[in-house]
Design brief:
Largest sheet: 7 strands, mixed
Shape: elongated
Distance between the termini: 60 Å
Number of strands: 11
Strand content: 15-25%
Number of helices: 11
Helix content: 40-55%
Structural class: alpha/beta
Radius of gyration: 22 Å
Length: about 325
């Protein structure tokens, strides 16, 4: 197949926090590129590996039997050097040295900022949203969220069982950095009595204490609080609540288990289609774009526009969670 704009080699990397489904996206990028006659270079350990020239050729066989695996076969890392002009120019120079004319970056907002810079330095770049936080405003879906929220939901179900047996209050901290989507979804799915999210800009601990007391008077045997990572302080919160209510209170921090595990069908399929679209955009000569999903369609946005968007949790979803917790 003849290629527009004479792109012959593309690179792919995963950056920032890993997310289940990243391997499905890598696999789709590699196989789509090969189907179009392109060479594919995999960049290990994200931008950190790029600056160290950890670049390997990828074939269809290299991505076989990977779609069901969690994590990322290319590995990932944070890279402070990409925030400097010197690091950015070095990265662009290395890509040109290896003949990489187009780059697919799978990650979150920080990763897209790096892609934006590389685009300005002459490298065609396409971003694919890969983060369990669901905090990228231009898309309704990010790779890894569905798996992470299901992992957390199942863990919380188990904590609820023992919490009920011991008549405890359980504070369960989920990930999400500064976004409360994991907390909100788990709170609704697990029937939590209270959800604490960073988007609320503070929470009323006095109100929680009074609600626990009122629930105990009505005969309720347990109380579940879902706390977002961006709020944190779960251990100290548990101590304060136990002291003030007399109800045994335990904190459970689910942590990085939410990043692992075999991706769900949704994460595999959405990641795969996004990977195909990313390569198609490069072949069309596009750059500085982010693949997204909105209103049932896979679309693409300008990275500058995407990074300027702000994402907030819809007020009606927060209200629904409050109603269902009564």
């Amino acid at each position: 197949m003849a290629l527009d704009h004479k792109i012959r080699t593309i690179g792919v990397l995963t950056s920032g926090g890993d997310a289940p489904g990243m391997n499905a996206a890598i696999r789709a990028v590699v196989r789509t590129a090969i189907s179009k006659g392109l060479n594919v270079q995999g960049i290990r350990r994200g931008y950190h590996g790029l600056l160290r020239e950890e670049i390997i050729s990828l074939t269809a066989r290299d991505v076989s039997d990977t779609i069901q695996r969690g994590g990322t076969i290319l590995q990932t890392a944070r890279c402070h050097s990409m925030r400097s002009v010197e690091g950015q120019r070095k990265a662009a120079g290395i890509l040109k040295k290896y003949g990489i004319e187009g780059l697919v970056v799978i990650g979150g907002d920080g990763s897209f900022a790096g892609a934006q810079t590389l685009s300005n330095l002459g490298i065609n770049t396409i971003g694919i949203p890969g983060t369990i936080d669901l905090d990228i405003a231009c898309t309704e879906f990010t790779i890894g969220f569905d798996t992470a929220v299901n992992t957390a939901m199942q863990a919380i179900d188990k904590v609820r069982d023992t919490s009920t047996s011991h008549e405890r209050c359980s504070i369960i901290e989920v990930m999400g950095r500064d976004a409360g989507y994991l907390a909100l979804w788990c709170g609704i799915a697990n029937g939590a009595e209270r959800i604490i999210m960073p988007e609320e800009h503070g929470y009323d601990e006095d109100a929680i204490v009074e609600d626990i007391k009122a629930n105990r008077e009505r005969g309720k045997k347990h109380y579940i609080i879902i706390n977002a990572e961006g709020v944190g302080d779960s251990m100290n919160m548990a101590k304060r609540i136990e002291e003030r209510t007399g109800m045994e209170t335990r904190a459970t921090i689910l942590g990085h288990m939410q990043r692992g595990g075999s991706p769900t069908c949704k994460d595999r399929v959405y990641a795969s289609i996004m990977g195909v679209k990313a390569v198609e955009l490069l072949c069309e000569g596009k750059t500085n774009r982010v693949v997204g999903y909105r209103h049932g369609e896979y679309i693409d946005f300008d990275i500058d526009e995407a990074l300027d968007m702000k994402k907030e949790i819809p007020e009606d979803q927060i209200k629904a969670a409050e109603i269902l917790a009564l």
